[in-house]
Amino acid sequence: MYYALKVWSDITPLNFHEVAGNNADIQIDFSRADHNDGYPFDGPGGTVAHAFFPGDHHTSGDTHFDDEESWTFRSSDVNGMDLFAVAVHEFGHAIGLTHISDMESIMRPYYQGPVGDPLKYNLPYDDKVRIWQLYGVRESVSPTAKPEVSGAEDHPFLPDLPENRSTIQ
Question: CATH number of the domain that 70 lies in?
Answer without folding.
Answer: 3.40.390.10
